[in-house]
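// run 5 | inverse folding | seed 20
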């Protein structure tokens, strides 16, 4: 069974890689060719590998495991948070703290601290402190919420990581590998696929919303799999949502969206395929 089609991937712009001068040779098996100095990702492989990742996610969630969504670069932050929340999973979209997995007991203490401070603010008991101390505690709350808000309530290690841009999230990948936690990731042509258990070759900028949506759908399907009536209802809702998402993706390509990268260069998405190719730099 295929959970994604070539047409959907094309409309989402998943096939556009990076400039040919900015690539990782290990991604060669997943590249169809090049056009105007931009690598084109082999979507036939993407379809097959995405289906594998989808089924792996369903299996993990059906077993009672949690999938942690990770994507801290600016382009991924909103999509990661929205889809993780939609399917009831945790996420990291601001900063990956070293030891978030390998030193989880310490992270849990920070989460406990966040819960304590939030409770103090909610019941106004924080007001018994001097004004200067209150300001200090409120700044601490903001910092903890920013870094740990997406995993608030997470009491155990995840059963799988879903990552956008493993090159950017290399610490998360290393920690997961050390603990034997499988990783599914959207891997662009400039990334190293080593260490990724479920590789999804694709544009980690333009195709993000679509990829996250599909992973979220896999989790929802797994959650409802033991209830035929709920599963049927979920499938109808997801089908309608897919049509809306695909339409939104098509509409999005009607506008040029400038994306600033860490290197100071930019990549853009625009109406024409050739124009899109020439601007993804």
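// decoded
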């Amino acid at each position: 069974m295929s959970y994604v089609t070539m047409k959907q991937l094309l409309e989402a712009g998943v096939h556009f890689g990076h400039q040919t001068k900015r690539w990782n040779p290990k991604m060669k098996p997943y590249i169809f060719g090049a056009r105007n100095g931009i690598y084109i990702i082999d979507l036939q492989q993407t379809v097959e590998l995405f289906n594998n990742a989808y089924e792996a996610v369903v299996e993990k969630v059906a077993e009672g495991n949690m999938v942690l969504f990770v994507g801290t670069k600016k382009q991924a932050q909103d999509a990661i948070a929205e889809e993780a929340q939609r399917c009831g999973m945790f996420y990291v979209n601001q900063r990956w703290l070293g030891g978030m997995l390998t030193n989880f007991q310490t992270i849990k203490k920070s989460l406990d601290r966040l819960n304590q401070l939030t409770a103090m603010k909610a019941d106004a008991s924080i007001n018994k402190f001097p004004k200067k101390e209150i300001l200090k505690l409120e700044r601490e709350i903001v910092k903890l919420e920013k870094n740990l808000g997406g995993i608030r309530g997470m009491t155990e290690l995840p059963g799988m990581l879903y990552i956008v841009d493993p090159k950017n999230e290399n610490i998360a990948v290393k920690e997961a590998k050390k603990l034997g936690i499988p990783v599914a990731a959207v891997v662009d042509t400039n990334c190293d696929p080593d260490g990724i258990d479920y590789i999804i070759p694709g544009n980690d900028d333009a195709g993000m919303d679509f990829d996250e949506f599909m992973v979220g759908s896999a989790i929802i399907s797994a959650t409802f799999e033991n209830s035929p009536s709920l599963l049927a209802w979920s499938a109808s809702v997801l089908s309608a949502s897919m049509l809306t998402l695909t339409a939104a993706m098509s509409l999005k390509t009607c506008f040029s969206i400038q994306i600033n990268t860490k290197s100071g260069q930019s990549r853009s998405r625009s109406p024409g395929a050739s124009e899109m190719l020439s601007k993804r730099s």
